[in-house]
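Running this now, will post back.
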Amino acid sequence: MNLQKVILASQSPRRVAILKQMGIDCVVMPADIDESQLASESPTDYVLRLAKQKALAIQQQLNGQFSDMPILAADTTVALGDSIFGKPENDADALRMLKQLSGTQHQVHTAVAGVFNQQIELALCTTLVEMMPLSDAMIAAYIATKEHADKAGSYAIQGLAGSWIKRIDGSYTGVMGLPVHETAIILKKLGF
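Update: finished.
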């Protein structure tokens, strides 16, 4: 096994940075899968299914190439009850999400999947996030920065929106998109 690198089934610069923080280099190979939620699928089942599908899609695409490197995939969603807040389709969608999340305690679910040598490992990290009430002006100014684009729930805790977060109960890196603890456990189970 190549003990220096993993294949990351994501193009997220945040996930790449978190792996580097863990001392792990990666080859970036984003998975292209249908991310539609299934009927009556819970937010946790949703992220677990997508993380696993992303890892398996890359494994199938490689067809034996890079067989000495484990494949790591993750999926993150923000949930308010059973409602899933994925990546915003546009600024109006981001506005809708942020208005709904304003002043709430919501969950950020990140699932991690690791695949190596016919072995599949899955882990789920759920963090409770308390967001302060946001004014329309605060939301409009944030959307104008474009930081919300490509972020589950339309915000980045590690960016400008971090000042809106009153507290979290759980994993900060999980909210960013790749929980360090769960990722390390999966890689260890795969023999990395």
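Residues 43-62 form the longest helix (20 residues). More later if anyone needs it.
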